[in-house]
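From the pipeline queue, job 12 of 40. The input is one protein chain; the requested action is below.

Action: predict structure.
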Amino acid sequence: MNNPALLPPPTPPLKKKTLSNHLELARSKLDDLIKRGGLKSKTRTVLTVTGLMIELAGLSFFVSDSADIRASMESSLIGLSQVILSLPMQSYKVEIEGRNDNAPINTTAFPSIWELTP
């Protein structure tokens, strides 16, 4: 049982304007990372009414018919994750959606596309 006296006080939610500022700053950092990494054709950021959307071209980051990340893209994904982790997490949720290519798949690891797609 948790002792309420030992728990930190809840973090108050950030105001809408502060949230917007954090997302705009994160977008700016991500756009800079995308530009420096030569990823403009593979990645884009969009501020939406629900938050900051980061779109990654799947085949650019993942090997076809595989869940493996391309070695050449690891540092870009690490940079992207560092920007996300720098956000005040009590005020955001991170949702990850996956898409893949439409090529049929039938391997030992992935008998069909359903096993490859989370």
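Job complete. The helical segments are 16-36, 58-61, 74-85, 113-116.
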